[in-house]
What does this fold into?
Amino acid sequence: MEENASKEKHHPRDSEKTRARILQAAIELFSNSSYDMVRSRDIAHKAEIDVALINRYFGSKKELFIAVLDTISQGKPELDSSDVESRICEDFSKRLSGENFQNTTTAVRLIAFSASSPEVSPILRERIGNEISRLSGLLGANDKTPATALIAYVLGMHTLLQMLSEEERAALTEKTLLEPIHAIFQK
It folds into this structure.
């Protein structure tokens, strides 16, 4: 009881801030370990809240994971069929450095760590499938292969870039990294 009282003193009640702390803690933990290995009490400890607040704000750990996916999906570029290639290239270029690189790293790691979880892999498959369908529609293709290849390239390339040193990443030219994306759009 005393521990909970000290947490309340440290973090006065503010539902928006509490929700944000829970989300931030979950993002950090899910991007460093699988969904199945992260416990609700780990998230609560990291967020400095009582574990019951996770269910109060999100309903369950699974619903919190969905909220995390929604949060990390924000900032995705709006695309239309007239400029899809240039917008995707522009977005990918931004994701290759600075804060955007870190944000993308977090998202890619979260997906990779939890892709095999029986509880959330169907959610991840559905989200990726929706993105493939969206891109296929923008590309005007009935065949989903180009959109699938594009997503595979972006996820795979970003995973590789995480393993390279900063100097090795800097040595790669943007033009070289974008060539496979341009090739996907060639008909």
Summary: The chain has a mean pLDDT of 87. The radius of gyration is 19 Å.
